[in-house]
Specification:
By secondary structure, the chain is of the alpha+beta class. It contains 16 helices and nine strands. About 50% of the residues lie in helices and about 15% in strands. InterPro entries: NADH_Q_OxRdtase_suD, NDH1_su_D/H, NiFe-Hase_large.
Length: about 375
């Protein structure tokens, strides 16, 4: 339990005026999207300062990686951003493969792309649904989980799991996708694409939703760069930067897709509405990538023949474009079967750090909108 008497000890910089007070939002609060505690300095309904307090979910994932073999750490990566487990698996496996100079079979590269983009859609669907819920709209979360269910069914068919998948392996993927699985993915793309128009009609251009999000939590491009913000939050500020395009990994350079950015269509560039809309438009691009991969996927093996994972001495940093932003893995190898050091660069951690800057002089209800537009997952904030 949190002892709220320690609030001013945690936030000594809050020099309270006679008409100001401190309010704790979380760590048990539905709109903090997990065990996040926000200490708010308020003047009535106006928020004068915000201080995030993290650490309630700390699980020592990086230290666990240093005490397990390289393959044994893959399931731990599932539990970072547990809404994008496939993408987490890929980043770590890619780092170890580069360290070992290990080549992944062509078919496995295509399957990795397909599964990562499906997981990106699934992650953005949760962001869309829960953001609508934060704004007082119940229907979007029902629509989002309705569309997310077929994706989870595809993942379950591939690896037997529905949340933490452990599907990517060092050197490929755990299991091939058969003809029926590929057909179900095509069918999903045909089913899902028209649903995005429904989301726009239901929420994106809803007058109440626009008034709750436009010109709220404006994140200028310079500030976003200074804080290391990445992913949809960075692109929402008008910066056209996506690692899949700017520093391609896997076989992303073979596919054509656009990078949506915030344009200030409903307010000011970099506001909460822009961050939300980037994710909606990215889902269309995900479908485009999946269709291209399905059309050109080759036959062949899905796993290399490497049986002992023991990278040579050295170090490496690999970054990938997770649904939340730039996910990086830094690994130091001493030539044994276990990493000497693992450091994870989690996008939600950096994105959350800018919250105090863009929440000042907003209403308490606006802080909920701003936090929802950042779309964090505490599993990778605390690690």
């Amino acid at each position: 339990m949190v002892d709220y008497r320690d609030t001013l000890e945690i936030a000594p910089e809050f020099d309270l005026a006679p008409d100001e007070m401190v309010l704790n939002m979380g760590p048990q609060h539905p709109s903090t999207h997990g065990v996040l505690r926000l200490i708010l300095k308020t003047d009535g309904e106006l928020v004068k300062a915000v201080k995030p307090v993290i650490g309630y979910l700390h699980r020592c994932a990086e230290k666990c990686g240093e005490s397990t073999t390289y393959p044994q750490f893959v399931p731990y990566t599932d539990r970072l951003d547990y809404l994008a487990s496939m993408n987490n698996n890929w980043g770590y496996c890619l780092a170890v493969e580069k360290l070992m100079n290990l080549k992944v079979p062509e078919r496995a590269e295509y399957i990795r792309i397909i599964m990562a983009e499906l997981n990106r859609i699934a992650s953005h669907l949760v962001a869309f649904g829960t953001f609508g819920l934060d704004m007082g709209a119940w229907t979007p979360v029902l629509y989002a989980f309705r569309e997310r269910e077929p994706i989870i069914d595809i993942f379950e068919r591939a690896c037997g799991a529905r949340l933490t998948y452990n599907y990517y392996t060092i050197g490929g993927v755990w299991k091939d996708l058969d003809t029926a699985a590929l057909k179900s993915i095509r069918d999903f793309c045909d089913y899902f694409e028209p649903k995005i128009d429904e989301y726009d009609n239901l929420l994106s251009f809803n007058e109440i939703f626009v008034k709750r999000t436009a010109n709220i939590g404006i994140l200028p491009p310079e500030l976003a760069l200074n804080y290391g913000v990445s992913g949809p939050c960075l692109r929402g500020s008008g910066i056209k930067y996506d690692i899949r395009k700017n520093d391609p990994y896997g076989i992303y350079d073979r596919f054509e897709f656009e990078i949506p950015i915030g344009t200030g269509e409903k307010g000011t560039v970099g506001d909460a509405w822009d961050r939300y809309m980037v994710r909606i438009r990215e889902m269309r691009e995900c479908v485009k990538i999946i269709r291209q991969a399905l059309a050109t996927i080759p036959d062949g093996e899905t796993q290399t023949t490497a049986r002992i994972i023991r990278p040579p001495k050295g170090e490496i940093y690999i970054r990938t474009e997770n649904p939340k932003g730039e996910l990086g893995y830094y690994i130091i190898s001493q030539g044994t079967d276990k990493p000497f050091r693992i450091k994870i660069r989690a996008p939600s951690f950096s994105n959350l750090s800018v919250l105090p800057e863009i929440s000042e002089n907003h209403l308490i209800a606006d802080v909920v909108a701003i936090l929802g537009s950042i779309d964090i997952v505490l599993g990778e904030v605390d690690r």
